[in-house]
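Components:
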Amino acid sequence: MKRNTLHATRDCFVVATFLLAMTLLVSCAPVDLNAPLPPSVTDPSILTAWAQVPAGDFLFGQHEKVETTDAYEIMVTDVTAQQYADFLNAALADGYVKADGENVVGYYPGDPFHGIDHEIEIKAGDWAFIPLDDPSQRVKFDGSQFTVQEGYENHPMTMVTWFGAWGYCGYYDYRLPTEIEWEKAARGTDGRPFPWGWEIQRNNANFYASRDPFEDMKTFGSRTTPVGYYNGSTYGDYVTLDSKSPYGLYDMAGNVWQWIGDVQPQEGFSDRFMRGGSKDTYDMDLRAWVRNSAPPMYFSPGVGFRCVR
Amino acid sequence: MQFIKTRFNYLFGSTKGLILAAIAVIAVVTAIWGMLSGPMAEMGVREVVIKLLGMDIVQSEREGRIVILYHSIAMAVVAIETYMITGLLKMKEFFKMSVRVLITVGYILTMVFGMGFAYFGHNWAFHGLYITGLSLIFFAGVLLCVALWPWNKEYYVTDKDYAHTKSGVDLERTAFFATAVTTVISALFGAVPGSFFGNGFEVFLAENVIRLPEKTTMEYSVIGHLHIMLALIAIMITLIIGRWLNFKGAWHKVAMPLMILGTIVLNLGVWGVVTPLEPIAHMIIYVGATPSMLAALFLLIWSWSRFIKEGTEHLAKPTFLQKLGAMVSDPLKFGPTWQMLFMNFTTSGIGIFMAIRLDEIFRMWPAREERIELTGHWHALSAIIATIILMYYGDMLGLKGKVRQIYGWSIIFLSDIALGAVTVFEMKRLFITEAEQQPLVNLLMYMIDFGLGMLLVLLAVVMVWRLTDLFKPKGRWTEEATHELSQEVVK
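Structure:
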């Protein structure tokens, strides 16, 4: 009797393990990264617009420390895939970047290095701006020309390293925003946690499981929305809320994390900050003060950037 | 009136009643607050709960709310362990009573007023009462240390089966004492920065600052506090399970000195983070963790060997399967040490792997990925401690036969499915890209939700059963009111 029970237990265990292994294997099967995109309209005027941020104090961080900035201008939207492809075409012709097969690379003069624990040495030299061989890359290269996968022209440029973001801004004599500049542009001066105000609803921004038309949580999950998508427009049945920041910027919360320009904000900290949350994070990460960071060679379908001047 | 008085006396005057009450409040808090995050938030349940209960959620206060929530649950768990210690170990009745009164009032004040302050508007009187609760628990801890004093000759042992010094000092009691003393001191590690709050200390979650090389002493103190308190809760439950199973013999004699040594060295390492020893503090912590974990391993070896021996003594030449069957025949006794072993997969293994490959792998990922690993592995450890408590509690309830099997194996399978999935979720970037992860994430979330959800359902069934039992004049509670845990130690 006891022996039968043991055999039954062993059989159950074997069957359960087999089923679990099969389910895991099926779950790891590739998803369609090129699934069709829903229709959307982007106002072309915002793609080249710059917002004016005046000089003065504002409340920085979760604990509202008073910080101050000079006046500056910041892009109203993230740099788009089309803008980045245009940059690469121009920069390739100028010799500012090279395509080495797997990556587009460009020169970076290196970081100061202190040899502190966990610090990465970023030496002067060529560093990857974008990978070319990753299936999530929406900018394609045919050997002579960079183009954008159809439908993604006005989506934020993703799969770009910090070097690639730094290189883009520098090419046009712009620069990446400092952390303080970025946060002031996102939340203004009244201490609000989100660009549009104090609370967040699902149709304020593109975040994880926000139920926007671009996501399908059963298959490919959350995807980027075109820049400036959350402007109060209605797309089919989907109604967005106008979610611009006090200075008129779009997508300062959600869609993609944005690279910050600060290099070694603390001695030995070789990561670069990223701000704003993304399509892949919960709403708590969309609060204006939330930091993320990654080494400058990191790239992802959920990381983009914008410039200041 | 008599009806209420007798039930009150059971719930707050007997060991099993006190444990039942604490488990019940943890279950309620876990069930309600579990609906505010993760998949429940995705499904929109969070908004409903917030509205229904009239919670006042301010975005910038999330980290503070979570700190209070963790403390509220942790204090009830500490209370449960304290009830177990005072029920298992010999001590003067005055101390037993005082410790229990203080810690019970303490955890209830902490939970009620802490959660009231954090989630239902900021009544600062509530905050004061929350601090009062924590202070009472601290004082209960000090009294427990006095009660456990191992050099009191009344508690000396002469039985050769148990670890003791030449003069008779009980080394198991000393291990309990060392853990209690270091817990009290380590509590100060959180209390000092916590008290500094009014003077400008700003609340933060450790996982959010882990990569920044510059941290203040107070920040180090908080990070040390949260790590060591959970480790000490885990060490204490290991000692408790050992006492319940009547751990003895050669393995006991090796394990107890290791447990004492490990606990002390581990704490010295953690306290070292706020001293000039900070650069080598991690090394000291590893040195301390090793003997503690070895001691737990020896408990496992001893207990499994004993289950096999007792379960096969009627057989002349037991086969491997018969031995295995004997080992797992009682899930409530096998389960706690199995969970300790499983913990090496969900917590220690992950921690060691991360430490070894930190720069090559984990620091190449964004900080938010590292946050998932950090929060995941200690949530898993907390859940494992909870399941061990529930298994011991199942034995206290006197579960027998099929009910015992179903209860015990359900806890093991459901929690291991959920926590195994959590571990794969933490490590998913090793084998799948962000763009392709969603189907895997969905599967893992189903496993986590199924495991933890069904575990809560099981707990709810037990709680409803215990609640209905309280209405019976001759319910099980009447027997439990007079039973002490020390009488139920495995012979």
